[in-house]
Each structure stands twice: as structure tokens, then as C-alpha cells.
């Protein structure tokens, strides 16, 4: 009796094991299209990792509830297998390998950050798995000749070059002097290259070119130099900590600079953390909710923001918006390919030309989105100290006029 | 290489003052490390993580509308108990073992703390605003954030209090006795177990003060602890154990050194320069020791 029970449980264990492995061992099961994603749910990128995941989930729910994906006359629903890459590139590459060779995933969504995307891209490329990513902007991702990598966002070198053009425009077309402080990571260095291009193009001059360390929390030395050299523009890119440190110390040291341009301001929740001190900072952003792009699923930026807030309880940062857009791109590509053949889907992705609430999407040869400009917003506060981010450039999307030059600290 | 710092006298003054104020804060963290190293012979790799945890306490007070300056009172109290807790759970099992084991154990604690903080508080960089304003010197050419001055003053106050406490109180005397000779102290009736727990607690409390000050002056992040560990390690190595004026001097020296390295080599080499200095000092020490050994032979 006892032995037969043991045998029975043994057999049922095997059956259960088998059935679960069968269900996960295919890219399209029944009416489900299974996508794989390694995302930073723990570790240093975990907050942006969660924004990414929320963006993906929001889009999956929305697409599924609005009829799903129609391929070959049948309707399919999206499903995502997530793994936590612990913000670690090596782990991310392992997980991509596991998703593809063990879980049988044939289509991937990107992780958060350029560094992790760089770690995963060679794996997806090796297996010919199409990957649509929404959070790796480093230029080097698009120069390696990857055929299966598609990014819905604008590459990093376009983040802040707009700011230099804007400064030159405000200087009546005359060249300006630029102070730069960039962290030494793949992303920020690409932003730097873009700024250098803009400096060259406009005949401007760089007067300070500081590199910031990974464990940055003090940039007083750079700011003292800025005080001495009095540049027309100060450009800072060092992720959230760069933005927070810069604003804190600029205010404390009363550094007067006519234009201050940064990245990662909305992730840093600048005005929330620094209040009026963050006023007038210009921030590069992939997306802003007031932009008037439209699609059938999320309608527009404002509606997306409202729906997102209802579901997750906070205003969506651009990391979430671009992640949602990645799913829209996949849906569109599947339907145009009308097949689950990886090559056909890849070709359909390459031919993407669509508008989403996040922006226009059209991929260049290297996989980067060339149809969506970056926007610059400026932190603007009213008398009561309530601050808002208002788009000031490019002019087509501007909802407010740029305040330039930034008033001196003694006059504030 | 950029020698701008020497071309403009105002920048030199600025760098020196920034360095001194920063160095005093480093010295406070290093003092805790020296104390516990001297008494228990443990090199605490988790020192920096305790600092960051202290910073988060001040940050949360700030979030709930309490001025973060109160953190310098609240944070050490909470951190003292956390320190005693860590001692009871882990450190008391490694305190008599060799140095390698204790380094490994505290390294483990460090990783655990980083992940726990990341889990509990998120990976965002945060700071607490004190709203203290700025002091302008020399015709506005030199600016000193009042928060930095506040940090330095508080650090000095705490250091002085601690010195007095160590000299006058019963526990202070017991700690000093244990540091000199644990066995003899035990024989003479000192409960060394209690002394060890208190020492680790005091160290954690000092880290709590420093962390609260760092959240007011700089930024905090779960993974930012290690540079503080390295700095305090380096300060203690230079000053030697049980040498408080030495710790203060080498702390300030390190602060100024870092500022100048920042200007001359660039911000990216700031921590690198500290590492390099550490290696140089260790090599120099070894060299000096080996000469002494030869002489003794």
C-alpha cells in the first residue's frame, strides 16, 4: 500500500513536470504568444526595471483586452516570462540563454539599461531571436551590425545635442562655450559624443570636459571650475545621482550658468526632491505625456499617463512609456508578417513604420528608431513652489517658452 | 592633468576648505572603525553600509516632515541597537578567530545590507534637504554650503563627547582595558562579551551620525557604502589604532588630498587616487617594518 502510493506520487510528479515543461516549451502555445524578458527587479537598476516591467504589463493587458494579435486568421494573446537579472550583465546574458534554449522563447523584449542590452544582444543574435528593446540607447548597440535588435527609442547621442543647438540659437546663432560633466558609463559617454558632435557642428568651444565616477556624490570641483570659466551651457549626464548632485550643489554653491541641461531628470524626480532649486533645469527626455502622438490602444500621452497612474499609482516616466511601445511594435510586426517564423517577423519588424502614443517608430539599418526626436523639457515653478516639467523644444511640441538665460542666484 | 587649482588662489582655498570639512566627516567614520578594530581586532568591511543605513534613517525622518538634522540624534540610537544585534548574531562568533574570518564575515554582512537596503528602500538615489543655505567668503569667490559646516561641527562634537566618555565612564575604561589586554581584563572582572557588544554598537552609532550627515550634505544610495569603508580603512592604517588625534589629522589630510586629486586628475580618479595612496602607504609601511626587523636581527 505504502509502496504503491510512493510510486503513484512519483509518477504524478513526473507527469506534472512533463506537463509544465511542455506548456513552457514553445513560443506559441494554444492562443498565447510567449515573449521572454530579463529585467532588473533587484539590484541597482531595480526602480527603472520595475518601470520597464509595468510598461510591458500595461501594454500586454491592453492589447489582450482589445482583441489580441491576429495571425493567420486566429487570435493570440501576449504572455511574458520574466526573470530577474539582478542588474548584472552576466546574469542577464545567462537568463537570455535560458529563456531561449530552455524555455523555448522565440521572441524577446529588452532589459533595462544599455549595459544589460549589450550583454543580451549577442545571445539573441546568435539564436536569431528578434528582440524589441525599449531601454538601451547606447550608440554602440546600433553599430555592431545586429540584425535582430530593434530599439523603439532614440539613440543616446541625440539626448543633449538639441540643447547645444538651442543655446546657439539663443546666442543669435553665434557659437557658445560649453562645460561638460559626464559619467563614465556606456550611456553617458554616448551622450557626450553627441554633444561633442553638436559643438563641432556649431563651431562652439568646450571649456570643461570632466568625467564623473560611478560612485559620484560630490561634484564641487567641476562646479568651482564652472564658476571660474563662466560657460554659456553646462551639460551633465550621470544618471539619477548626477542630476540630483548637480542641482543640490549648484544651488548650494550659487553657480550661475545661463543654461543647464541634463539627463535622467524625471527618474530623479528633480522638482520633488529639490523643489524650487531645480527650476530652469533643461532635461532630455524620450517622451513626455503632453506630446500629441496617437494610437488605437492608448489613444495619446495624456490618456496613457492617466491610465498608468490608475493602475500603478504614479505618473509614468518615459521608461514605462517606451516599454509599452515595444509591445505595440511586436503586435504590429506579427500581424504584418502573418506568421511566427522568426525570419519573417524580423523582416516585418525591420519594415515597421507606425505611430504610437510614444512617438513615430521606424527602424534604421542598425535597429535604432530614427523617426522620433528627443524632447527637452524645462522645470518651471509657480509662485507657490509647485513645479512642473514643460516641453520647450523642439518647437513643434513645445507647451511653454524656454526661459533663458537662467536668472542669477542673487536675483532669485 | 589640470593644474587650474594652483593658478587661481581662490580655487586653492576652496579646495582646502572643502577637503577639510569633508575630512572631518571621514575621520568620524574612521574613528569608529579604529575603536572596534583596536578592541576586537575586527576589520569591518560593512562600515560603509552602516553609514548608508544611518543615512536612510535621516532620510525617512525627512520624508515624514521631520528636519533631517534630528537624524544625528535619532539615527545613532537606532544604529546602536542594530550594531549590538549584528554583534550578537554574527560578530561574537568570529571575534576570537583570525582576521581573515572576520573580514569574510563582515564582507558578507556588507553584501546582505546592500541587498536589504536595496530591497527595502529601492535603488533610487536620495537625499535629505536641510535648507541651510550657503556661506560666502572672499567676495563670493569661495562658497561653503552650511550643511557641510554643520556636518563638520557635529562630527567634532560627537568625537569630543566620545573621547570624554572613553576617559571618564566605567564602560569607557572597560573598553580601553579590553583593548589593551582582553585576557587580563577578563581576569579582573570585565565582562568582555558586553564590552565587545557595546563597542560594536558605538561604532554603528558613529556610522549612524555620519550617515545622517551624509544624507544632508551629499546623496545616499544602497550601493554607495564601499568608498566609505575604504576611506576609513585607509585613515586608520595611516593613523594607527588608538590614536585619535592621528585619525583626525589623517582624515582631514585625506579629505584635502581627495579634493586636490579631483581638481588635478579629474573627478573620475578621485576614489582611484585614494586606492593608490593606500597601496603606497602599505608598501611604505612594509618597507619601514622590514628595515626595523633587520635592525633587530
Explained architecture:
The complex is a heterodimer of chains A (412) and B (297). With 412 residues, chain A is α/β, with parallel strands linked by helices. Chain A has 2 domains: 25-154 and 290-362, 3-Layer(aba) Sandwich (Rossmann fold), CATH 3.40.50; 158-285 and 374-411, Response regulator (Rossmann fold, 3-Layer(aba) Sandwich). Helices cover 42% and strands 21% of the residues of chain A. Chain A has 13 helices and 18 strands. Chain A has helices at 2-24, 46-65, 89-101, 114-127, 161-170, 186-202, 220-229, 239-252, 265-268, 270-274, 301-312, 318-337, 342-350, and strands spanning 28-29, 32-39, 69-71, 74-84, 107-109, 131-133, 149-151, 177-183, 205-212, 233-237, 259-262, 282-285, 294-295, 299-300, 353-356, 359-362, 375-381, 387-393. In chain A, strands 1, 2, 3, 4, 5, 6 and 7 form a 7-stranded mixed sheet that branches. Chain A has a 7-stranded mixed sheet with strand order 9-8-10-11-12-17-18, sandwiched between helices. Chain A starts with a helix and ends in a 19-residue tail after the last strand. Chain B has a single domain (4-296), classed as ABC transporter involved in vitamin B12 uptake, BtuC (Orthogonal Bundle), CATH 1.10.3470. Helix content of chain B is 77%, strand content 3%. Chain B has 12 helices and 2 strands. In chain B, helix 2 (9-40) crosses helix 11 (244-265) and helix 4 packs across helix 9. The model of chain B has no long low-confidence stretch (mean pLDDT 87).
Amino acid at each position: 500500500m505504502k509502496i504503491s502510493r510512493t510510486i503513484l506520487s512519483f509518477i504524478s510528479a513526473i507527469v506534472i513536470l512533463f506537463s509544465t515543461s511542455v506548456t513552457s516549451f514553445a513560443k506559441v502555445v494554444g492562443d498565447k504568444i510567449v515573449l521572454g524578458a530579463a529585467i532588473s527587479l533587484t539590484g541597482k537598476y531595480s526602480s527603472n526595471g520595475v518601470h520597464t516591467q509595468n510598461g510591458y504589463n500595461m501594454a500586454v493587458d491592453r492589447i489582450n483586452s482589445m482583441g489580441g494579435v491576429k495571425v493567420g486568421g486566429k487570435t493570440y494573446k501576449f504572455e511574458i516570462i520574466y526573470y530577474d537579472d539582478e542588474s548584472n550583465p552576466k546574469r542577464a546574458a545567462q537568463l537570455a540563454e535560458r529563456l531561449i534554449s530552455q524555455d523555448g522563447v522565440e521572441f524577446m523584449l529588452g532589459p533595462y539599461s544599455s549595459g544589460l542590452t549589450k550583454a543580451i544582444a549577442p545571445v539573441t543574435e546568435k539564436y536569431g531571436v528578434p528582440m524589441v528593446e525599449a531601454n538601451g540607447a547606447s550608440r554602440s548597440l546600433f553599430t555592431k551590425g545586429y540584425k535582430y535588435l530593434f530599439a523603439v527609442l532614440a539613440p543616446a547621442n541625440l539626448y543633449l545635442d538639441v540643447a547645444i543647438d538651442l543655446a546657439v540659437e539663443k546666442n543669435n546663432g553665434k557659437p557658445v562655450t560649453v562645460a561638460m560633466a559626464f559619467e563614465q558609463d556606456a550611456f553617458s559617454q554616448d551622450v557626450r559624443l553627441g554633444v561633442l558632435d553638436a559643438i563641432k557642428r556649431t563651431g562652439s568651444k568646450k571649456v570643461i570636459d570632466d568625467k564623473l565616477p560611478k560612485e559620484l556624490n560630490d561634484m564641487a570641483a567641476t562646479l568651482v571650475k564652472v564658476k571660474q570659466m563662466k560657460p554659456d551651457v553646462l551639460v551633465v549626464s550621470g544618471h539619477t545621482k548626477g542630476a540630483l548632485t548637480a542641482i543640490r550643489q549648484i544651488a548650494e554653491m550659487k553657480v550661475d550658468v545661463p543654461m543647464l541641461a541634463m539627463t535622467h531628470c524625471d527618474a530623479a524626480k528633480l522638482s520633488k526632491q529639490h523643489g524650487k532649486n531645480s527650476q530652469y533645469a533643461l532635461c532630455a527626455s524620450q517622451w513626455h505625456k503632453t506630446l500629441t502622438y496617437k494610437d488605437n490602444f492608448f489613444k495619446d500621452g495624456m490618456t496613457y499617463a492617466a491610465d498608468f497612474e490608475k493602475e500603478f499609482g504614479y505618473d509614468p516616466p518615459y521608461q514605462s512609456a517606451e516599454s509599452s511601445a515595444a509591445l505595440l511594435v511586436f503586435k504590429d510586426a506579427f500581424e504584418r508578417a502573418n506568421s511566427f517564423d522568426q525570419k519573417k517577423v524580423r523582416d516585418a519588424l525591420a519594415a515597421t513604420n507606425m505611430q504610437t502614443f510614444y512617438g513615430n517608430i521606424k527602424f534604421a539599418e542598425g535597429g535604432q528608431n530614427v523617426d522620433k526626436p528627443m524632447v527637452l523639457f524645462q522645470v518651471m515653478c509657480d509662485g507657490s513652489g509647485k513645479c512642473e516639467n514643460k516641453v520647450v523644444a523642439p518647437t513643434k511640441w513645445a507647451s511653454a517658452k524656454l526661459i533663458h538665460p537662467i536668472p542669477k542666484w542673487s536675483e532669485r | 592633468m589640470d593644474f587650474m587649482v594652483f593658478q587661481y588662489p581662490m580655487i586653492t582655498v576652496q579646495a582646502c576648505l572643502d577637503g577639510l570639512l569633508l575630512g572631518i566627516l571621514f575621520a568620524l567614520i574612521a574613528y569608529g572603525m579604529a575603536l572596534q578594530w583596536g578592541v576586537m581586532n575586527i576589520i569591518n568591511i560593512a562600515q560603509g553600509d552602516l553609514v548608508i543605513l544611518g543615512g536612510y534613517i535621516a532620510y525617512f525622518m525627512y520624508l515624514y516632515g521631520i528636519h533631517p538634522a534630528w537624524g544625528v540624534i535619532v539615527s545613532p540610537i537606532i544604529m546602536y541597537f542594530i550594531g549590538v544585534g549584528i554583534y550578537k548574531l554574527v560578530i561574537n562568533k568570529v571575534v576570537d578567530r583570525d582576521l581573515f574570518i572576520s573580514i569574510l564575515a563582515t564582507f558578507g554582512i556588507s553584501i546582505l545590507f546592500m541587498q536589504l537596503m536595496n530591497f527595502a528602500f529601492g535603488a533610487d538615489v536620495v537625499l535629505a534637504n536641510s535648507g541651510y543655505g550657503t556661506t560666502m567668503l572672499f567676495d563670493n569667490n569661495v562658497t561653503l554650503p552650511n550643511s557641510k559646516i554643520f556636518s563638520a561641527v557635529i562630527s567634532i562634537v560627537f568625537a569630543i563627547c566620545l573621547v570624554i566618555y572613553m576617559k571618564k565612564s566605567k564602560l569607557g575604561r572597560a573598553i580601553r582595558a579590553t583593548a589593551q589586554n582582553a585576557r587580563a581584563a577578563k581576569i579582573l572582572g570585565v565582562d568582555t562579551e558586553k564590552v565587545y557588544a557595546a563597542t560594536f554598537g558605538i561604532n554603528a552609532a558613529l556610522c549612524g551620525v555620519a550617515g545622517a550627515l551624509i544624507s544632508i550634505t551629499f546623496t545616499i544610495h544602497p550601493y554607495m557604502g564601499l568608498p566609505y569603508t575604504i576611506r576609513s580603512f585607509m585613515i586608520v592604517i595611516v593613523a594607527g589604532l588608538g590614536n585619535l588625534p592621528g585619525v583626525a589629522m589623517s582624515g582631514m589630510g585625506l579629505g584635502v588630498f581627495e579634493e586636490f586629486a579631483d581638481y588635478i586628475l579629474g573627478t573620475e580618479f578621485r576614489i582611484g587616487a585614494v586606492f593608490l595612496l593606500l597601496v603606497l602607504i602599505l608598501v611604505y609601511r612594509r618597507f619601514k617594518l622590514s628595515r626595523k626587523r633587520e635592525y633587530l636581527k
